[in-house]
Amino acid sequence: MTGGTIRSQSPFGEDNAISAGYRLPMIVIRLPYVAPWNWPQFHQHFALRLLPGLEALEPERYSRTVRVGDDVGWLSVQPLATQPALELTLSDSLAEHTVALVMRVRKMFDLDTDPTVIARHFAADPHIGPLVAATPGLRLPSAFDPFEQAVRAIVGQQVSVKAAVTITQRLVERLGEPCLCLSASRTDSLTKLFPRPETLASAALDNIGMPGKRVAALQRLSAAVANGALELHADDGSDALVSRLCELPGIGPWTAEYIALRGFGEADAFPAADLGLLKAPLWGRNGLTPRELRARSHTWRPWRAYAAVYIWNNYGISSLQAKAEEFSSAPAAGP
C-alpha cells in the first residue's frame, strides 16, 4: 500500500451537512500510476453506465457502495491535480479490508499498466498504432465487482448501454439491500447495495423488461455463482473463464469475452462480435466481420483488450463521444 493515512475529519469538510452524525475517521490512501492516465476517459465510462444510489459521479470524483463479506460501506476515488496519483477514500467500516480494496481499485482504474509498454506494442500496427499515438495513455476500465459486471453484460445483450442501465437500475432499486452509510458524494446519496447472487437467482423478474430467455440466463448465472457451481474468477486466464461462462445456456462468446474484459480487466480478452468494434470508422464504410476482426486481433496479443479500448474510442469519436459502445451489442446468445 502506498501513502496510506487516517484522517480525523470528513473529506468534505467538517461543516458539510452530509458529514454530521457519522463515524470518523475515514481511510485515505494515495494510489500512484505511471503517466499518462486519462480521468476524462473514466468519467465518461462511468457517466454512460451510472447506477444512482449504488454509484455517484461528480466532475472530479467517483463513489460507490461496497459490500465485503458482512461489512458494508463506501469508497470514493478522485484524481490528484498535483501528482500522478488517485486518492482513494474508504469508510472506516471497511478498514479491515483496506489491502484487498486497494488492489481492487487499482485494477478497476487500471493503475498498474505501463502505457509505454502498450504504445511500443502497437507502434508498428497500421490500424491501432495511429490511434494510440493520437490519444496516448488510454486504460482499461473494469468493474469493481465481477458478478455485478456479469449481470450488466447479460442485461446488455442486444440492447444499447442506455437500455441496459435502465434495466439494471430496476434490479438495484427492487432487489438491492439498503446501505445505511455516509454518502461519499456532495450531490447524490449512496443508499443501495448491488443485489446478491442468491437474491437475483430467486427473484420474480417477469416484469423487469427483459425477454424470458435473457431472464433465464441471468438467473442461471446468479444461481451458479450463489451455489458455487460457477467459479467466477480469472486466476487461470481469460480463455478458461470464457470457456466456463459459455457452458451456461444463454451466454455466448460476446458476453463471456465482455465479462472477462470489463469484469476482470483481462488484458487479452477480446469480444470480436461487438458491433462497436466491427463498425468503427477505421475499418471503412463496410466495417469488418467478426471472423475478419478476430483474425486481425491475433497480432495484438497479449494486449487485445487495449486494442478494443482504442477501437471503441475511435467509434465513440465518430459519434461525438455520446454513443461510445452504446450499440456494442451482442449477437444471438449461445445455447
From TrEMBL:
Domain called DNA-3-methyladenine glycosylase AlkA N-terminal: residue spans: 28-145
HhH-GPD domain residues: 155-318
UniProt-listed PANTHER family: DNA-3-METHYLADENINE GLYCOSYLASE, DNA-3-METHYLADENINE GLYCOSYLASE 2
Protein's name according to its UniProt entry: DNA-3-methyladenine glycosylase II
Molecular function (Gene Ontology), one example: DNA-7-methylguanine glycosylase activity
Superkingdom as given in the UniProt entry: Bacteria
Keyword terms: DNA damage, DNA repair
Protein source organism: Stutzerimonas zhaodongensis
Entries under SMART domains matching the protein: AlkA_N (SM01009), ENDO3c (SM00478)
Catalytic activity: Hydrolysis of alkylated DNA, releasing 3-methyladenine, 3-methylguanine, 7-methylguanine and 7-methyladenine
Top EC class, one word: hydrolase
EC number: 3.2.2.21
